Each structure stands twice: as structure tokens, then as C-alpha cells.
Amino acid sequence: MANIAIIPAAGTGSRMQAGINKQYLLLAGRPILFHTLALFAAHPRIDRICVVVPAAEINYCRAEIVALYGLEKVSAIIAGGPSRQDSVANGLLGCNAAVDDLVIIHDGARPLLRATDLDALLDAAAKSGAAVLGVPVKDTIKQVQDGVIVATPERSSLWQVQTPQVFRYGLLLAAHSQARADGFAGTDDAMLVERLDHAVTMVAGSYRNIKITTPEDLAIASAFLAAQGV
């Protein structure tokens, strides 16, 4: 069995308001996407990496990220789709995986993943077939309709889900196929697997595993790396 990382990085990053797609913004002097890919390239349990980017950026990604930094584990650069769900589906179809392989779905703009958390996630997914990384929410959450609070969920049961999310290839492919047949759009891959009534294991991760979405996130990520001496 192989462990295959699929890195969707096909979003436009409109909330960053930077003029370029956020995955190419510099973090500690190198593109965000480089930092993310380097995590997986350095991990001994990852066999290969498939990157999913907009079709117009494939050549740029190959030359300015993969070739420039010698990321030899990147085996494919795949054109994304109009939504993240479509991009992951394209990655699944293009990653050349076997049914029982583990596929690791991880946001291209989430460059601070710890190797130990990836290890724990791979161990959990190998047992259950589906596992995600997350952290307990720290704030009180309110459910709001039309500007009015209608419910306050019990905080102790709420987790903030992150990536990576790891699944048996055959399971995730079936989940995406079913979602497409039903016209269903989920907010993450676990949501699609849950629709098949397959249990998904939650693995405790780190609050530092942020997704860089806004300029404030970039400043926070820079601070984390500076604290590591990067």
C-alpha cells in the first residue's frame, strides 16, 4: 500500500487581496506552497505527492516550485476544477492510486503541519479507513439566523476540523462519486465520507496548523516560523 498526498492549491485566495494566488505569496522568503510540499517531501511515510493547481498555473508550479526546489516526490501536477471539491476529485482521478492506498488531502495554504501529527493521522486512518486532524474549539459558538442567536451548542463536543484528512482511496473515491451523483457540495472531504455512514476518526492536532487565508494569517505563520528559527 502507498501513502499518497493530494495537495489542492487551486483557490484564488480572494480574501488575501494580494494580486496573486495566495499559495505563491512568500513566507520566510519562500512561497507558501513550497513550505507545504516540503513537509510531505521530507516525511518518510509519504510515497508521492500530487499537486492540484489552476490549469493556467501548471507550468509555473512545475518550474518555480517543484523543479526550483527539487521536490522529487511530486509525481503529478493536476488541473483543478471550479470548486475545491472538484479539485480534490480531479486529484483522486489523476493520482494513480490503488483501492487500499491511503490518500492524504491537505490544503496547499496550510504550511505548519507537524510531522508527528501526520504520523498519528496515518496510524488512525490505517485502522479505521478515515481520519481527520482537528482541535477542540476554544471559544463559545453561537448559531445565528437573521442576525439573532438561536442556539448555543455545547462547546465540549465541538471540534475545529483541519487538514490533513486521510482516507482509503476507494472509500473517498466512492464518497466523491456519490456526492456528484446527488449534486451535493460539502465543505470538506470528511463530510462526503460521513454521508456514506462510514465513521471518521478525529485525531487531536495543533492550533498552530493554521490555514493562511488573510494577511493576518500570514503574519501569524511568519511568527511561528521565526520562533523555530526559520
Describe, in plain words, how this protein is organized in 3D.
- With 230 residues, this protein is an alpha/beta fold.
- The chain has a single domain (3-227), classed as Spore Coat Polysaccharide Biosynthesis Protein SpsA, Chain A.
- 34% of the residues lie in helices and 23% in strands.
- It is built from 7 helices and 11 strands.
- A 7-stranded mixed β-sheet has the order 5-4-1-6-10-7-11, sandwiched between helices.
- The longest helix is centred in the middle third of the chain and has 14 residues, at 115-128.
- The two termini are 34 Å apart.
Topology:
Elements: E1 3-8, E2 26-27, E3 30-31, H1 32-42, E4 48-53, H2 58-67, E5 74-79, H3 84-94, E6 102-105, H4 115-128, E7 130-136, E8 143-145, E9 148-151, E10 159-168, H5 169-182, H6 189-194, E11 201-204, H7 215-227
Parallel strand pairs: 1-4, 1-6, 4-5, 7-11
Antiparallel strand pairs: 2-3, 6-10, 7-10, 8-9
